[in-house]
Specification:
Largest sheet: 9 strands, mixed
Oligomer: single chain
Helix content: 40-55%
Order of helices and strands: EHEHEHEEHEHEEHHEHHH
Strand content: 15-25%
Radius of gyration: 20 Å
CATH superfamily of the largest domain: Spore Coat Polysaccharide Biosynthesis Protein SpsA, Chain A
Number of helices: 10
Number of strands: 9
Structural class: alpha/beta
Number of domains: 2
CATH class of the largest domain: Alpha Beta
CATH architecture of the largest domain: Alpha-Beta Complex
CATH topology of the largest domain: Spore Coat Polysaccharide Biosynthesis Protein SpsA, Chain A
Amino acid sequence: MRPPGGGPENLRISVVTLTFRRPDDLAAALPTLVDAVQATPGAELLVIDNDTVPSARATVEEWSQAHPVRNVHEPRPGIAAARNRGLAEAAASDVVVFIDDDERPGDGWLDALVATYRRFECVGVAGRVVSEFTGPLDPWLVAGGWFDRLDHPTGTVVPVVATNNLLLDMSSVRSWSLRFDEEFGLTGGSDTVFALEAGRRGGTFVWCSEAAVVDVVPAARATRRWVVRRALRSGNSGARAQVHVTHGRERLAARATFAAKGLARLVAGSARAAFGTVTRNLGARSRGTRTAARGAGMLLGAVGYVHSEYARR
């Protein structure tokens, strides 16, 4: 499935970042992304501009003149369409690495992903994400752990992954005809469906703790309203994804399972939040709200409600 041992030499690597009307984030990300690909023989950077017009072209062209950087315009709306365009443009590559346009890779990021990929028999490698903030956080957000990120020992098998820091083995993608389901393009969750479909074919994803990127969280997202909506969306898309990959009677059972799980989370979280309010326990109130919001999303997703977080005006 992959060349044995060593570093990234002789691998054709496409680093793909998706962007949609975030010129400041993209301009800040490009220097670090260009440094990463230039330090890696055989690597290139693809910027997939998902705007209706190629609004990122001028920003990318500043770098594409003298660096292995390509700008690709994908006008079809939705993050899944942009991800699929990235796969199509990198069809000749050995691996594709997805990273968000508001993230900054750390030193040795790409080497660490590739080294883990060579070490383990897997369809993909997921890296760690560390949140960074532009100002002080609301204590309610801190107490609830809303921006706490997962981390695992390198080599841990993980069942689902996100494309904010993800390496994919393109031979597996091609042989299994894997694509991101565009039904989830404006709702989120297409990466979850992708991982579940890969898992159904016997593919595994492993974790790489050393391949860290920094997620720069703007003030507009560090609010109670935003994180509660994100928790609801996460529960909604997660449940919908699990139901989506099942068929026949299994789908009905999946709906029932996630409806029950969502209701249990909603009730337990609401009770915890109420307890926290009465006792003035900030952590209980915040964490209870988080559990309840995710549970509500799961329940709604199980019965077919679609929360379109990325819907465009």
